[in-house]
Amino acid sequence: MKKATIQISFDAEKLKAIQKYMQKKDISLQSELDDALQKLYEKHVPPAVREYIESDAQEAQAAAPRPPRPRPAAPAHAGGDGSAQ
Prior knowledge:
The chain has 85 residues and is mainly alpha-helical. Helices cover 54% and strands 0% of the residues. It has helices spanning 12-24, 29-44, 47-63. The protein is flat, with a radius of gyration of 26 Å.
């Protein structure tokens, strides 16, 4: 799924404190925020809509073109420097 960026305002001193104490526990603020947003999504978005979004994303992923495979290098000619003799 395509990711979107959100921006929120929060008291700078409180943010600094959160980061300090989460770092001591080796916890990522980003992962905690991701978890909180996922819970809000599950709480407020009806199951039928979530199912539709997930199936639509799976179809889009299946239909996405795959990048081409790299081709093997062409064999070198005898003489190797390409000059005519």
